[in-house]
Design goal:
CATH topology of the largest domain in chain B: Rossmann fold
CATH class of the largest domain in chain B: Alpha Beta
Distance between the termini of chain B: 82 Å
Strand content of chain B: 25-35%
Strand content of chain A: 15-25%
Number of domains of chain B: 3
CATH superfamily of the largest domain in chain B: Nucleotide-binding domain of ferredoxin-NADP reductase (FNR) module
Shape of chain A: globular
CATH architecture of the largest domain in chain A: 3-Layer(bba) Sandwich
Strand order of the largest sheet of chain B: 9-4-5-8-7-6-10
Structural class of chain A: alpha/beta
Helix content of chain A: 25-40%
Oligomer: heterodimer
Number of domains of chain A: 3
CATH architecture of the largest domain in chain B: 3-Layer(aba) Sandwich
Largest sheet of chain B: 7 strands, antiparallel
Radius of gyration of chain A: 26 Å
CATH class of the largest domain in chain A: Alpha Beta
Distance between the termini of chain A: 61 Å
CATH topology of the largest domain in chain A: FAD/NAD(P)-binding domain
Strand order of the largest sheet of chain A: 3-2-1-4-16
Chain lengths: 501, 370
């Protein structure tokens, strides 16, 4: 390698990513962040110091060899870069788009101590997109081992687990309840943040590993977990059914026309393409003035979908401040640029109706922040007599989700008090051979955390099934007995032992 | 180490042994083994490959046979045909038209037929651009591997299905059975009420009650004599069967509530009533039984998208709680359901429904002329 790079010699500025102009993009569903070109990627890759003990790899939930894939970019060996990425993560084009890198790999990047950190996510996306454009596939040699594994749910946790089990040689079948694959990637994340074509392409790399995907299959009701392990002959099952059950607040007026969950809004638009009604049969009842309650990533998606689906004005109502909001900073920024009006420190108390049962206004109360609560965020406290009404046509709830209840209803799996599946540190559930991971265990989180859980469960399943990891066979761990034979130092072998009285 | 894979030695003779996968041990035993009749390791190695290949073949064969038997038992399509079947949708194997708006479809889905229980529903997508609509399962035939849906053509999707869904065509998607099955329980004397689109779905419940040993009184409502269907089917499992028509052209003249009153007047010991039909009818049934304190179950049909508990569009008020009909229902205590809320929420998309129907009617009219 050439001269060692230092913080002084690398490009100082982070390479900007081209973005669709805010005034244009609110009128279309095309991607907002357009992605790097080749020159951008080469320039940004130069900013990586290739640390000897990279912190970024450790902070990646799926442990991508980040330094190695970036090094391959600088060497212009893009194909190897892709192979390194897909070794850990089959879906680079998806993760490069939706991972919260600023809280993970990019947060610990040493370049970030003095400059902006290396744009790892954008580089990942560029390599992933390049692979899709070039039609690269990375299909490792797979030695079938005769084990049959079922995956419940084709969301991020399920596909990460499916990929690892297929690579280990298992015959994998993924069951999906909806008529299309991808879980939250498909129904939840809108087209302008993650195009469906990218999901389709990445799903194809899964089927190339030999994974079978069965849609329209509601596990638990069509057949139970017990049946899968018994009469259907699966040796192990992974459950990644997610936490899709939307929460409401229980305030008056929630069943009025024009009140819906962000999940419903997003599913109608993303999965069912309600934006193209009546060409597509699924309608959407979106008014001109939309209020979205909550300020997480789902809320941002719901607001930006509303803007693109004909809403004239979109409000965000959140009981804490911008600093406490769980959304990615970039998403809040995008929403702001597109004209969303934020009402921080505001909570709804009632939804008001007109004579026909349609939403006409929302009564809100102002809040102030008190002492930190269990989550470490300062607890919002209502300010007395600060209620006010503002006129609105549609109210969208994006205040979180709960565990999907179907698996719990139809099996004897142990659940915790909130209805999530009980799993130990190896992600094994209370039923032998059944593992679970992602939102159905942890509660609503991110795509990449679910994928990390899927990979972790895959490792546990392999141990459970007795599949040896090829790496560990060839590179045994240090056991402290090297240099000894039968417990005797090798140097002593030819000497007879003498017992000293 | 010397290579003794699959080999073991017993009394100076080499044998080949292969462990049988766990799932096949009931057929093949714990392992397959055979003597090579030699004490020479080299000779044993040379002879090994052939025996191993033969054993592998036996294991593969046993697995294939077991899979096939399983698939047949489960009613699942065989591996060879499963791919094409699921990609091309779900075949309609029979159709019957009861009237100009009510039609019956039998759909081939052996696993679903096997899993379905009274009270459950499916979600259907008729074509690629279609919407997801919930339909209650009207019947299931486990040996034929079909489920029966009875559809009323009221909106764009159901009218379009009325035209398109002929025998041999396929539904784009069919998923289920969804919802919690009916609790048949230990009721001794049951009234089962069906009206409108609820006549067919009440049938499997009524049958289940009869099979559990209850005294079953069936009450079904139609507008007139021409619209009556399944009379023999119902009578087979009913101890008493009351047809109510608006004009009195068949059975008694009046609403299903009149039929219920008649049944209750004859039997003071009715301990359960199940009603399926339009919300206004179910509301009336619940009000009829309320003074008698009879346990009343209703099956709700709110608007749904996914049917798996994800969108919350199907939320209904039951008592002071909000419940999702798709995963916590569809059956609830009729005396606790807020029917006015349900009826209001069913009108949520009325303008879009009208728009879709008009656009479709125009398009099909145009197509017929052109």
């Amino acid at each position: 390698m050439a001269k060692k790079k230092t913080i002084r010699t690398i490009p100082q500025e982070r390479t900007p990513i081209p973005v669709q102009d805010a005034s244009l993009r609110v009128q279309n569903f095309s991607e907002v962040a357009l992605g790097y070109g080749k020159e951008d990627a080469l320039l940004e890759a130069e900013r990586c110091l290739l640390c000897p003990d990279p912190a970024c790899v450790k902070s990646c939930p799926v442990a991508i060899d980040i330094d190695r894939f970036i090094e391959k970019i600088t060497e212009k060996d893009f194909r190897s870069s892709y192979d390194i990425l897909t070794d850990a993560n089959l879906l680079p084009a998806i993760c490069g788009r939706v991972c919260p890198q600023e809280d993970q790999c990019e947060a610990v990047c040493p370049v970030g101590d003095t400059l902006e950190p290396v744009a790892i996510g954008r580089l990942e996306r560029w390599v992933g997109d390049l692979a899709l454009a070039e039609g690269w596939t990375s299909s490792p040699h797979i030695e079938p081992n005769g084990f049959r594994v079922a995956i419940v749910g084709s969301g991020p946790a399920g596909i990460a687990c499916a990929a690892d089990m297929a690579k280990a040689g298992c015959e994998v079948t993924v069951y999906e309840a909806l008529h299309a694959t991808g879980g939250v990637l498909r129904y939840g994340i809108p087209e302008f943040r993650l195009p469906n074509s990218v999901i389709d392409a990445e799903m194809e790399s899964l089927t190339r590993l030999g994974v079978k995907i069965e849609c329209n299959t509601l596990v638990g009701r069509l057949f139970t977990l017990e049946q899968m392990l018994d009469e259907m002959g699966f040796h192990a099952v992974f459950i990644g059914s997610g936490a899709g059950y939307p929460s409401f607040m229980g305030i008056p007026g929630e069943s009025l026309h024009g009140v819906l969950s962000a999940n419903e809004l997003l599913t109608r638009c993303n999965l069912m393409r309600a934006g193209e009604f009546p060409k597509y049969d699924t309608p959407l009842d979106l008014g001109a003035r939309v209020a979205v309650i909550g300020a997480g990533n789902t809320a941002m998606d719901a607001m930006r979908v509303s803007l693109r689906s004909g809403a004239e004005k979109v409000h965000c109502v959140y009981r804490r401040t911008r600093d406490e909001s769980p959304a990615r900073e970039e998403e809040i920024g995008h929403a702001e640029e597109e004209g969303v009006e934020f009402h921080w420190l505001t909570a709804p108390v009632e939804i008001l109706a007109d004579a026909e049962g349609n939403v006409s206004a929302m009564r809100c109360i102002r809040m102030e922040l008190g002492e930190p609560d269990d989550s470490g965020r300062r607890r919002p406290i209502p300010i007395e007599r600060s209620e006010y009404d503002f006129e609105i046509d549609t109210v969208v709830y994006a205040i979180g989700t709960n565990a999907n209840p179907v698996i719990g209803q139809t099996s004897k799996l142990a659940l915790n008090k909130w209805g999530y599946l009980e799993a130990d540190e190896d992600l094994a559930t209370s039923m032998a051979g059944v593992f679970a991971g992602g939102d159905i265990v942890t509660g609503a989180a991110t795509v990449i955390l679910a994928m990390g859980a899927g990979r972790k469960a895959a490792r546990s399943m392999q141990v459970y099934l007795g599949i040896r990891d090829s790496e560990s066979v060839y590179a045994p761990e240090h056991i402290g007995n090297e240099g000894k034979l039968f417990g005797i130092e090798i140097g002593e072998r030819n000497f007879s032992r003498v017992r000293v009285q | 180490m010397s290579d003794t894979k699959y080999l073991f030695k017993r009394d100076q003779t080499w044998w080949v042994k292969i462990t049988v996968p766990r799932t096949l041990r009931d057929v093949l035993g714990y392992d397959l083994r055979r003597s090579l009749h030699t004490s020479d390791l080299e000779a044993a190695r040379a002879a090994r490959a052939e025996v191993v290949a033969e054993f592998r073949g036996r294991i593969a064969e046993a697995r294939a046979r077991k899979d096939e038997a399983l698939a047949r038992a489960c009613g699942a399509p065989l591996p060879s045909e499963s791919g094409s079947a699921s990609s091309a949708g779900f075949e309609i194997t029979a159709r019957e038209d009861f009237s100009d708006v009510t039609y019956l479809l039998e759909v081939h889905h052996p696993m679903l037929a096997r899993a379905a229980a009274p009270g459950q529903f499916v979600v259907v997508v008729s074509h690629e651009r279609g919407e997801r609509i919930p339909l209650t399962i009207a019947d299931f035939d486990r040996s034929a591997g079909t489920i029966t849906l009875v559809v009323q053509a009221v909106g764009k999707t159901t009218r379009e299905m009325q035209e398109r869904c002929q025998v041999g065509t396929r539904l784009s998607a069919l998923v289920g059975p969804m919802g919690i099955p009916s609790e048949i329980g230990k009721a001794q004397k049951v009234v089962c009420v069906g009206g409108g689109l609820g006549v067919a779905p009440i049938y499997p419940q009524l049958r289940a009650f009869k099979q559990s040993g209850a005294y079953v009184i069936g009450v079904v409502g139609f507008r007139n004599r021409e619209l009556v269907f399944w009379q023999e089917k119902f009578e087979e499992y009913c101890d008493e069967f009351i047809i109510c028509t608006d004009d009195g052209s068949a059975g008694i003249k009046g609403l299903v509530t009149d039929g219920i009153e008649q049944a209750l007047a004859r039997h003071a010991d009715v301990d359960r009533l199940v009603a399926i039909g339009p919300p206004i009818m179910m509301k009336a049934c619940a009000e009829t039984t309320r003074p008698h304190g009879i346990e009343t179950t209703v099956s709700l049909n709110p608007i749904m998208v996914d049917g798996t508990g994800m969108c919350g569009g199907c939320r209904v008020k039951v008592g002071d709680q909000t419940r999702f009909a798709c995963v916590e229902g569809p059956e609830f205590d009729g005396h606790a359901v807020d029917f006015d809320d349900l009826m209001s929420r069913l009108r949520r998309f009325s303008s879009q429904e009208k728009q879709a129907l008009e656009a479709w009617s125009e398009a099909t009219a145009g197509a017929r002329q052109g």
